[in-house]
Amino acid sequence: MKKLITAVLLAASFMAGANYTANAYDYHQKQERYIEKLQKELNLTQDQVEKIKQIKQAQREEMKEFMKQHKNPVLEATKNGNFDKEAFKNTVVENAKNMAEIRAKYLEKMFSVLNEDQKKKFIEIMKERVDRMHEKMHKEF
After folding, report:
1. pLDDT tens-digit readout, 130-141
2. Which of 38-42's residues contact partners 24+ apart within 8 Å by CB, and which partners?
3. What is the pLDDT of residues 40-67, one digit of tens each?
4. How far is residue 52 from each of residues 42, 99, 112, 115, measured CA to CA in Å?
5. CA–CA dist 117, 115 (Å, integer)
6. What does the alpha-carbon distance between residue 113 and residue 95 come to, in Å, rounded to a whole number?
7. What global pTM score does this model have?
């Protein structure tokens, strides 16, 4: 039974990796559209656009490294053959902290590229995105 569970979890991990590769091109296109949208809405200079592209590329690279070291909460919680709720929660929290650190670092870098008016507009855009996400989640649940 333990071997079956391990096999299923490994298969799920491989499927997630394959899905990531298949969606990488789509992700890149979405990032390009996102930067184009920011360029229009924030009236970014070409220099700012190039800096933001470099920042986003560096973030992507760091995210790739994070995903290599990312711990699977289910695998961590079932190492002893049973489900360890605390191990699961601790792994989820650790992953979330690491992800938040990466995001915070790159948002800080992005803010450093923007002038005061652009920062205000960027905050408005982020608020609109969060509001849309909440609306979508409300409809789904």
Report:
1. 999 999 888 888
2. 38/122, 38/125, 41/121, 41/125, 42/114, 42/118, 42/121, 42/122, 42/125
3. 999 999 999 999 999 999 999 999 999 9
4. 12, 19, 10, 13
5. 6
6. 28
7. 0.69
